[in-house]
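Quiz preparation item.
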């Protein structure tokens, strides 16, 4: 960015009412950006600067701020001072998403730092950084030393793709190793260095049994290396150590993977296409975050077609075994939450260490038939990764029969990639209802798919709750049937192999503050739409689990999301319009295919030669079948 200390006046900045240059007061220099607002009801003042940052890049941003007599509109509790934020826009100048860190606080204070991080979405055309007062805030603020640090990825990155799940190989099955090597030359002045890659395969007593050597040319930027041992590996433990070197300074490194040759797959695992296998059968986890598992609620959830539940109330609850047994009674899978078992998290465990308590829970309930997976991460930033890896390795060692699930709110895949080696399933949680459109669903789910390199479980956590339950200034606006359906179709279009909704118990709340008693009147208004949505989505499971992805040539997209599945001799187009207006998408009709019904659900079609035009209403979505 330019002129972050305002030593060049207001050059490179777009100032909005109430924002001026102060040449007498700065953090270290003599200049700063001065922002003044005399009325909490007036539009918030501020300044912004447009940035050209490559999609996928991770950005860390900071600013120094000083406040005087900052006060907030009492009706807007979240109005808590001055802020810095970053936002991404598409080629049509439409906001895709952004990051909005914690605010400065109110009152009068000396210089303090505000900071945040953001991964630029893959479909971003440009980024904007802004500073100012939050809506509903009056008073004075000074900003200075606004800076960005673009995180430079390693020159060489490596992602082990086979074995696809926890380094497991079947003794009688395919024994192949595959690794994706990414060389980030663009971040290193297009450095033309050759890359040398070596792999040493060792047995349980650390004896090298085979070596593999490769040399990648100066033109290589994205390569998949595939190799296999000359002789079949017998059941047991091995290690595969990859070494990666170049003449670029400080870019060489090595990584060791645990390899386990097994006779049979675990009770629950993720297959090579990202699907969940339980008891030898593919399933599509489809469920809810819930509160306490009373019979009434579990019965209702099951009858609505859902098959999975996740509760935060267990993991440090004495009735955890009863919880799992009750779920089994209703044939519901449990994703068991151990997300808070980290040093530094607000969990009261007495003198015991969180990792020790987590180990006890895993050992006690790992044999429960309802158990599907362990919930290990709920929106923890990269600074937690060392502890996440420690918990993941402990769970992996104690319980080889159940995968782990992480959930993140990142818009870009680069940040999600940081968790590639410390989890089995990665999900993103867009929660778009209440925004200008629902497109954030595709932004985040696409980021999750790219970050998993098609070798991990890839799920989506979607919104059934109303933001008014969490934010006082919001008016009630719960997702309706079209918004629920649309989120699902967007997630499915971008490869989600599991869907959870957040959350069941929020359906009993109408607005902030939350009430202790359950509001059944509110719940009964919302639940019928959820049941209708569930019936439609669960009817797709045979196609989702056993169909084959096929290509569709898009001629004109207009922001509409689309994918294709071939199943039982037909091409099924999954389509979602994430915008609150009617839109049309044009695709090429596959050779030999015909349309038997011009209107299917919410989708209307017309054919002009080889062009198939599909028109969807506001937030329209569904399946359009051709054969």
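Solution:
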């Amino acid at each position: 960015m330019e002129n972050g200390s305002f030593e060049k006046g207001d050059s490179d900045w777009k100032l909005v009412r109430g924002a001026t240059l102060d040449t007498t007061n700065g953090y270290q220099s003599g200049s700063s950006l001065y922002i003044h607002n005399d009325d909490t009801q007036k539009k918030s003042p501020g300044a912004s600067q447009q940035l050209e940052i490559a999609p996928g890049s991770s950005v860390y941003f900071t600013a120094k701020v000083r406040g005087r007599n900052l006060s907030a509109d009492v009706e807007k509790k979240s109005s808590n001072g001055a802020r810095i934020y970053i936002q991404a826009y598409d080629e049509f100048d439409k906001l895709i998403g952004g990051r909005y860190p914690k605010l400065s606080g109110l009152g009068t204070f000396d210089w303090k730092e505000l900071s945040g991080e953001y991964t630029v979405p893959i479909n971003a055309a440009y980024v904007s950084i802004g500073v100012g007062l939050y809506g509903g805030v009056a008073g004075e603020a000074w900003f200075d030393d606004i800076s960005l640090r673009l995180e430079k990825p390693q020159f060489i990155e490596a992602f082990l793709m086979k074995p696809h799940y926890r380094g497991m190989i079947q003794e009688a099955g395919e024994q192949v190793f595959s690794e994706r090597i990414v060389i980030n030359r663009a971040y290193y002045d297009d450095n033309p260095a050759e890359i040398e890659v070596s792999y040493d395969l060792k047995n349980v007593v650390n004896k090298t049994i085979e070596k593999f050597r490769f040399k990648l040319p100066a033109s290589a930027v994205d390569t998949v290396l595939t190799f296999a041992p000359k002789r079949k590996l017998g059941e047991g433990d091995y290690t595969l150590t990859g070494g990666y070197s170049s003449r670029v300074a400080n870019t060489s490194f090595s990584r060791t993977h645990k390899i386990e040759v097994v006779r049979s797959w675990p009770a629950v695992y993720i297959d090579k296409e990202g699907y969940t296998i339980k008891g030898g059968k593919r399933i599509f986890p489809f469920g809810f975050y819930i509160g306490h598992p009373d019979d009434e609620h579990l019965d209702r959830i099951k009858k609505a077609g859902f098959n999975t539940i996740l509760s935060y109330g267990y993991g440090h609850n004495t009735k955890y075994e009863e919880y799992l047994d009750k779920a089994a009674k209703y044939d519901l899978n449990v994703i068991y939450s151990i997300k808070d078992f980290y040093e530094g998290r607000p969990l009261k465990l007495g003198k015991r260490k969180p990792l020790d308590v987590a180990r006890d829970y895993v050992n006690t309930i790992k044999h429960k038939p309802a158990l599907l997976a362990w919930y290990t991460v709920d929106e923890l930033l990269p600074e937690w990764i060392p502890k996440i890896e420690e918990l993941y390795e402990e769970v992996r060692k104690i319980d080889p029969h159940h995968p782990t699930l992480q959930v993140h709110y990142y818009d870009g895949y680069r940040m999600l990639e940081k968790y590639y080696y410390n989890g089995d399933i990665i999900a993103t949680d867009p929660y778009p209802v209440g925004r200008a459109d629902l497109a954030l669903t595709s932004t985040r789910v696409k980021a999750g798919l790219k970050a998993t390199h098609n070798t991990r479980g890839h799920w989506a956590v979607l919104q059934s709750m109303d933001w008014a339950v969490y934010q006082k200034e919001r008016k009630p606006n719960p997702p309706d049937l079209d918004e629920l359906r649309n989120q699902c179709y967007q997630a499915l279009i971008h490869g989600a192999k599991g869907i959870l909704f957040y959350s069941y118990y929020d359906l009993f709340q109408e607005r902030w503050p939350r009430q202790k008693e359950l509001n059944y009147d509110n719940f009964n208004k919302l639940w019928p739409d959820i049941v209708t949505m569930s019936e439609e989505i669960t009817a797709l499971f045979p196609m989702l689990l056993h169909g084959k992805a096929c290509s569709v040539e898009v001629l004109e997209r207009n922001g509409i999301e689309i994918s294709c599945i071939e199943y039982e001799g037909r091409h099924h187009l999954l389509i979602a319009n994430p915008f609150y207006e009617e839109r049309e998408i044009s695709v090429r009709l596959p050779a030999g295919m015909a349309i038997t019904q011009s209107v299917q659900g919410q989708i209307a079609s017309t054919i002009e030669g080889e062009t198939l035009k599909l028109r969807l209403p506001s937030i329209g979505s569904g399946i359009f079948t051709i054969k």
